[in-house]
Design brief:
Blueprint lengths: L4 E7 L3 H12 L6 E7 L6 H9 L5 E5 L6 H11 L4 E4 L5 E2 L3 H8 L6 E10 L5 H8 L4 H4 L5 E2 L1 H10 L12 E4 H7 L10 H13 L1 E13 L4 H7 L2 H17 L4 H8 L6 H22 L4 H14 L2 H35 L1
Amino acid sequence: MIPIISVCVPTYNGSAFFQECIDSILSQTFSDFELLIVDDGSSDRTVEIAQAYASKDSRITVIENSQNLGLVENWNRCIELSQCEWIKFVFQDDKIASNCLERMLEESTPDCDFVFCRRNFVFEASVSEAKRKEFSFFLDLDKVLPGNTRISAYEYCQAVINQPWLNIIGEPTSSMIRKRVFDEFGVFNPNLIQICDLEFWHRVATNRGITFIRESLATFRIHDRSTTAKNHDGHNYRMSLDFLILIHDFAYHPAYQNLRLFCTKQPNVDISELIIKETYSSWQRGQKIIKIQPQEKQEIEKVWDELIQKYPRFASIKKLSLLKHVRYRVAPRLEAIKHRLNSLLKSM
């Protein structure tokens, strides 16, 4: 008989905190789950540890990818392998409270596809004070929609359009998602470096809403070797284009039709203008980098070539954004010249 929940742990060289993660899953008060550990070519003891656990618990299946898929594609591999009604991600550095699965199921209803809980942050000693402060500014639903447990698609649209770049829900370890959601809305977007989870939350919740449990049932660990930390430290220019891709999907992706309809009823919200503005801002950031570091020119041009190859609309959007910017710069000068000419004519 198929269990109710697939607990999915995508792994890659995660042995440092892996046992703590697995122990938190196996100590759940709700036990009708399968545990899928999907390894993406680890070179440390991750697979060895996983197999040791699997030999003692029949609920555990260890899968080793034949080739390295990369972070997001490994998340999607977990979804592909899951056969259960619900998918619960727990990342290799994280852990969940002993009643996490039980509470999430209690709060779910037949029309609820998306359950989230509050999460704690745990910082390893090596994490700098500056990095800790970055995470202290993270918003969550407690602040954006205080008191709400059932957040409708309309309410979520309202929250998103005000601050689309902020992850007010949290990381995948905070989530439990009904499998049919992925069948209807697709999987995580592998073209995104840092905000692949944020984009997916927006894609689904603007259509389905969410159920939010105001209890801390998950713990998200930050350390210098984590993917989050590495993404913040490197790939900064390419990572900055994630937001541009997000706005592109707001404007064109079929799944965001509900959000676009919401925006048509809001004053001062124009996604078409926003994408033009953000495209120019992103291009200009690249030009500033090139001016300071000319050796980066080839890499930045490559980033734009790859972006346009994956999202062809950006070719015309980029041209339009540059033309509009020229117009905005030239128009005031032309107006000033016209004013001076009129003044001269009047004085003659």
